[in-house]
Design a protein that fits this description.
By secondary structure, this protein is an alpha/beta fold. The protein has a single domain, classed as TIM Barrel. Helix content is 33%, strand content 19%. An eight-stranded parallel sheet has the order 1-8-7-6-5-4-3-2. The chain is globular and about 40 Å long. The chain binds D-xylitol-5-phosphate (DX5) and zinc ion (ZN). GO terms for molecular function: D-ribulose-phosphate 3-epimerase activity; metal ion binding. Keywords: Carbohydrate metabolism, Cobalt, Isomerase, Manganese, Metal-binding, Zinc. Its EC number is 5.1.3.1.
Length: 218
């Protein structure tokens, strides 16, 4: 299997010194940026101007996770802002096929995220349209929540469906990923791992990234 990819989430970093925080995770495969609008989730974080500044501050790819209402309207702007990948939520998109195509047309990878209670079956016909399927392993909105084992069967089903169609889609798991839970997610078939508190809550974030990757690779 390909080496596991670790995406530290800056939601758990120090927002007053984001540039320096990016420098603490040099071996990250991408930096995960959680955009929350205070409507789709009960928390408000950052928006396009900050993503533009982050894109200027790092050569690492930015994996932007939009937890917002009306992504049809806002998501393309994040591709223009320099995101390598833009993920929108299945629960929020009005025209997900058109949106995924729009993101790719603007040069970004397209990600589709599903909340813990959202079934993936209705979304399987879209596999050709996306680059990443994000299985949320917590209810979105906050860092530091406990990993929900109830999503493991969904990760397994996603991996199987993707392998069956031969589509080249990554399975990203987001929420509660740490040294104790990452192995379960990897065994279920995830290949991209978002980790916020497990990386930025560690004394040495860079060492945490390396340790998580080793655990995931088994
Ligand atoms: C949750 C966010 C996650 C969050 C993960 O709503 O989408 O990306 O930063 O944080 P941890 O790893 O602490 O659960
Ligand atoms: Zn996220």
């Amino acid at each position: 299997a390909a080496r596991a990819r670790i995406h530290p989430s800056i939601l758990s970093a120090d927002f007053a010194r984001l540039g320096a925080e990016l420098d603490r995770v040099r071996s990250a495969d991408a930096v995960h940026v959680d955009v929350m609008d205070g409507h789709f989730v009960p928390n408000l974080t950052l928006g396009r101007p900050v993503v533009e500044a982050l894109a200027r501050a790092t050569t690492a790819p930015l994996d932007v996770h939009l937890m917002i209402e009306d992504p049809d309207r806002w998501a393309p702007g994040y591709a223009d802002a320099g995101a390598a990948s833009v993920t929108f939520h299945a629960e929020a998109a009005a025209a997900p096929v058109r949106l995924a195509r729009e993101l790719r047309a603007r040069g970004a990878q397209a990600g589709l995220a599903v909340n813990p209670a959202t079934a993936i079956d209705p979304w399987l016909p879209l596999l050709e349209e996306i680059d990443t399927l994000v299985v949320m392993s917590v209810e979105p909105g906050f860092g530091g929540q406990a990993f929900l084992d109830l999503v493991l069967p969904k990760i397994r089903a996603a991996r199987r469906a993707i392998d069956d169609t031969g589509a080249r889609v990554a399975v990203q798991v987001d929420g509660g990923v740490n040294a104790e839970t990452i192995r379960r997610a990897a065994e279920a078939g995830a290949d991209v791992f978002v980790a916020g508190s497990a990386v930025y809550g560690a004394a040495d974030p860079e060492a945490a990234v390396l340790a998580l990757r080793e655990l995931a690779d088994g």
